[in-house]
C-alpha cells in the first residue's frame, strides 16, 4: 500500500469518526473496518462519475449495511459528488443531506435507500438483472453499451436476514455474473460475537447458491482486495461473493474488534488515540483532511469521468449504426405517454361479461406489453393464478436474459426488493405478483419503494374470503388496512373491467408512487356506472334519484355490485341510496374539497361502508353515525358463496344495516 493510498483510506476513517462524534450518534465500526475495501473498489475497479452521477452505464454501489452510512458519505464528499464539509458536519441532523441511513433521491450518489439489513442485497440483485436484460436486448458486436457491474457491501447482519438468502438463491440460479457482493466479515454484532447466534459457514452457503466465493484474509490489504475484485469480474458464469475479514472499529485501540465500536460514537479521547495510532496529522483537530488527499481523490475522480466520455462516444456510434435500436433505447428510458393511453380506446375496451379482476388485469398486462417495451415482471411462482404472464414473451433466465417474464420463485420478500432494484436501475418498469394475503411478506420492501418514490406495480390477487376453500390462512383480512397505512402508496381495488383498466393506467403513469392492485379470484359483473372517474379514487356509480340521498353506500371491489343490489331493494322500501365506488382512498384524499363534498356531502350522515376485509380505516368516511359491513375476524374454509353469506355480505344484510343507520340518524 502506497503512502497516499494509506492516507486516503484513513481519511475515510477519520472523517467518519469525526462526523459521528459531532452528531453524538451513529455507527463507526463499519466505516473504520471496511474503509480499505471501499477505497480500493471506488478508486481502481468501479466506473462512476461525480459530474454525471446518473449516467446509464455506471457501476452501481449499494451499501446494504446502511448503518455505516458515513462510509458512503465520506466517499461522496472526497470524490466531489456535491457533499460539502458542512454537510458532513451535519450528519444525522434534521434537513441535512447526510441522514442516519442513506436515502435515495435525497443525497446525490446514493443508489438505494438502505438500513433494513439485507434489503440492499435484494435490490442489488434487481439491478444486476436489469443490466443483464438490457445488455441482452441492446448490445451488438463491438458495441457493449450496457456493460457494468453491481457491487453491494454488507456485513454479518445482512447475511443473517432471510431476504439475502432468498435474493442470493435467485441470483445464483440466474447466473448473474455482473453481481459482486463484498462481505465485511468482522464477526461482531450489537450483542457481541456473532458466535452467539451465527456460526454457519457463509462461504459454503454461497457456493450452494451458485456463487464464486473468494476470501481476503486481511481487510487492510488493498492489493489482495483488488485481486479479489478482478477475480470476481473474470468469472462470466456466476455471481461472486468476496469475504473480506476485517476488524470492526479498526484503528481505535480501545474499541477495535469490540461490539462497543458498532453503534456508538468512539468518544473524543478515543478518536484522538485512533488518529495518533493511524499516524494522522493534527490528531486533535476535528474534520482535518490534508490537501494531498483531496488532490488524490480529485485525480481519481477525473480518471473515473473518462470512462463515461468513452461510453458517450460509443453510444453515439451505436445510434448511428443501429438507429432503430437507438430510438428503442430512448423509449426504454422515458415515461409512457399518459395522455395517449388515457384516450386509447382499445386499452379501455372490455367484454361485457362477468370476469374476475385478476383475469382482467392479465388482459391489461398483455395490452401494455406492446405499448411499453420496458415493462417487465412476474410472480412468486403464481403466474397462472395471478395472471401476470406476458403472452408470446420469453422467460428471463440464465440462457436468455432478453425474456420479460420473471420467475421469482416462492420468494415474496426478495421479489419485492428485486423489483425495487429493477426500478432503481432505470430502463425497466417492473411489476410483481402474489396472493394478496402474502403481501405480509412483501410489506417491508413495499415500504422502501414508497419511501424511495419508485413507481413499482404490485399485482395482488385472491383479495378476500372469496378465496373460499383455501381457508383463513389464505384469506386476507387486515392487509388492505395495512397497505393503506403506508404513506405514498396507492392501494387500488377495482370493481370491474373499467376500474381495472383505471388501476393499471394509474400504475404505469405514476412517476413517484407505487401502486398495489388488489384483485378478485371470483367473477364480477360489469357495471354501467363505472369508468375513468375511478382515477379520482371515489365517485358516484349509482345515484339515489333525489338531490339529497337518504343514505350513502361506499364500497370497493367485489362489494360495489353487492351495494348496487342492496340499493335496488332499498328503493322498493322508499329509501333512496347513493352508491359510491371507492377503489382508492389515497386518490380520493387528493381531490378538491368541493369534489369530496359532492361525492360524500356532510349533510348525509347515514353512511355504510361495505368491504370484505377489516373495517379499520373506514371510520373516516362513515363517521360516528355510520356503520360498516366488514370482516370482524378471520375467515373460514368453505365455498366463496357460503362464506359471503355467512359473514353478512348479502344484499339483505346490507339493507338491514342501512335501515338501522337511517333510523338512528
UniProtKB/TrEMBL annotation:
Cofactor remark from the record: Binds 1 Mg(2+) ion per subunit. Can also utilize other divalent metal cations, such as Ca(2+), Mn(2+) and Co(2+).
The entry's keywords: Calcium, Magnesium, Metal-binding, Thiamine pyrophosphate, Transferase
Class of enzymatic activity (EC top level): transferase
InterPro entries: THDP-binding (IPR029061), Transketo_C/PFOR_II (IPR009014), Transketolase-like_C_2 (IPR055152), Transketolase-like_Pyr-bd (IPR005475), Transketolase_bac-like (IPR005478), Transketolase_BS (IPR020826), Transketolase_CS (IPR049557), Transketolase_fam (IPR033247)
Nuclease recorded as keyword: no
Role according to the record: Catalyzes the transfer of a two-carbon ketol group from a ketose donor to an aldose acceptor, via a covalent intermediate with the cofactor thiamine pyrophosphate.
Subunit structure: Homodimer.
Family to which the UniProt record says this protein belongs: Belongs to the transketolase family.
Protein name: Transketolase
Source lineage: Bacteria, Bacillati, Bacillota, Negativicutes, Veillonellales
Amino acid at each position: 500500500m502506497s503512502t497516499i493510498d494509506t492516507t486516503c483510506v484513513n481519511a475515510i476513517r477519520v472523517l467518519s469518526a469525526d462526523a459521528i462524534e459531532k452528531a453524538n450518534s451513529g455507527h463507526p465500526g463499519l466505516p473504520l473496518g471496511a474503509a480499505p475495501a471501499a477505497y480500493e473498489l471506488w478508486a481502481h475497479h468501479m466506473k462512476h462519475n461525480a459530474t454525471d452521477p446518473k449516467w446509464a452505464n455506471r457501476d452501481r454501489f449499494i451499501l446494504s449495511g446502511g448503518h455505516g452510512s458515513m462510509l458512503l458519505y465520506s466517499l461522496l464528499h472526497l470524490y466531489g459528488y456535491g457533499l460539502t464539509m458542512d454537510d458532513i458536519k451535519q450528519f444525522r441532523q434534521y434537513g441535512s443531506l447526510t441522514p442516519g441511513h442513506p436515502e435515495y433521491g435525497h443525497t446525490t450518489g446514493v443508489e438505494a435507500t438502505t438500513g433494513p439489513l439485507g434489503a440492499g442485497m435484494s435490490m442489488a440483485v434487481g439491478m444486476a438483472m436489469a443490466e443483464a436484460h438490457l445488455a441482452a436486448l441492446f448490445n451488438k458486436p463491438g458495441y457493449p453499451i450496457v456493460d457494468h457491474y453491481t457491487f453491494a457491501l454488507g456485513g454479518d447482519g445482512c447475511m443473517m436476514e432471510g431476504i439475502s438468502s432468498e435474493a442470493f438463491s435467485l441470483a445464483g440460479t440466474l447466473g448473474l455474473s455482473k453481481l459482486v457482493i463484498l462481505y465485511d466479515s468482522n464477526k461482531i454484532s450489537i450483542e457481541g460475537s456473532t458466535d452467539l447466534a451465527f456460526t454457519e459457514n457463509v462461504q459454503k452457503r454461497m457456493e450452494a447458491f451458485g456463487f464464486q466465493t473468494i476470501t481476503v484474509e486481511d481487510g487492510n490489504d488493498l492489493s489482495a482486495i483488488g485481486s479479489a475484485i478482478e477475480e470476481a469480474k473474470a468469472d462470466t458464469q456466476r455471481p461472486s461473493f468476496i469475504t473480506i475479514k476485517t476488524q470492526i472499529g479498526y484503528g481505535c485501540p480501545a474499541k477495535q474488534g469490540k461490539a462497543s465500536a458498532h453503534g456508538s460514537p468512539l468518544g473524543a479521547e478515543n478518536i484522538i488515540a485512533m488518529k495518533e495510532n493511524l499516524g494522522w496529522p493534527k490528531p486533535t483537530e476535528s474534520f482535518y483532511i490534508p490537501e494531498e488527499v483531496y488532490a488524490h481523490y480529485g485525480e481519481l475522480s477525473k480518471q473515473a469521468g473518462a470512462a463515461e466520455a468513452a461510453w458517450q462516444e460509443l453510444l453515439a456510434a451505436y445510434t448511428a449504426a443501429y438507429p432503430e435500436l437507438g430510438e428503442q433505447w430512448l423509449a426504454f428510458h422515458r415515461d409512457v405517454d399518459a395522455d395517449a393511453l388515457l384516450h386509447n380506446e382499445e386499452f379501455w375496451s372490455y367484454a361485457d361479461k362477468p370476469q374476475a379482476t385478476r383475469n382482467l388485469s392479465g388482459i391489461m398486462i398483455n395490452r401494455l406489453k406492446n405499448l411499453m417495451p420496458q415493462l417487465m415482471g412476474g410472480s412468486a411462482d403464481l403466474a397462472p393464478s395471478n395472471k401476470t404472464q406476458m403472452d408470446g414473451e420469453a422467460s428471463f433466465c440464465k440462457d436468455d436474459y432478453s425474456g420479460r417474464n420473471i420467475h421469482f420463485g416462492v420468494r415474496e420478500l426478495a421479489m419485492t426488493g428485486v423489483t425495487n432494484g429493477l426500478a432503481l436501475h432505470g430502463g425497466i418498469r417492473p411489476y410483481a405478483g402474489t396472493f394478496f394475503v402474502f403481501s405480509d411478506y412483501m410489506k417491508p420492501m413495499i415500504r422502501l419503494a414508497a419511501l424511495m418514490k419508485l413507481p413499482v406495480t404490485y399485482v395482488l390477487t385472491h383479495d378476500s374470503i372469496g378465496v373460499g376453500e383455501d381457508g383463513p390462512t389464505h384469506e386476507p383480512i387486515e392487509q388492505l388496512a395495512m397497505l393503506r397505512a403506508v404513506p405514498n402508496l396507492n392501494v387500488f381495488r377495482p370493481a370491474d373491467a373499467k376500474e381495472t383498466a383505471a388501476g393499471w393506467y394509474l400504475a404505469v403513469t405514476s412517476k413517484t408512487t407505487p401502486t398495489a392492485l388488489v384483485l378478485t379470484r371470483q367473477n364480477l359483473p360489469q357495471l354501467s356506472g363505472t369508468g375513468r372517474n375511478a382515477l379520482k379514487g371515489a365517485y358516484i356509480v349509482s345515484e339515489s334519484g333525489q338531490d339529497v340521498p337518504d343514505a350513502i353506500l361506499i364500497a370497493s371491489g367485489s362489494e360495489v355490485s353487492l351495494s348496487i343490489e342492496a340499493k335496488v331493494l332499498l328503493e322498493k322500501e322508499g329509501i333512496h341510496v347513493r352508491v359510491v365506488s371507492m377503489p382508492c382512498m389515497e386518490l380520493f384524499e387528493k381531490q378538491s374539497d368541493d369534489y369530496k363534498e359532492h361525492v360524500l356531502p356532510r349533510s348525509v350522515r347515514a353512511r355504510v361502508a361495505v368491504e370484505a376485509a377489516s373495517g379499520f380505516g373506514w371510520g373516516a368516511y362513515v363517521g360516528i353515525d355510520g356503520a360498516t359491513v366488514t370482516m370482524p375476524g378471520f375467515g373460514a374454509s368453505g365455498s366463496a358463496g357460503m362464506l359471503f353469506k355467512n359473514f353478512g355480505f348479502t344484499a339483505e344484510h346490507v339493507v338491514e344495516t342501512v335501515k338501522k343507520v337511517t333510523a338512528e340518524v
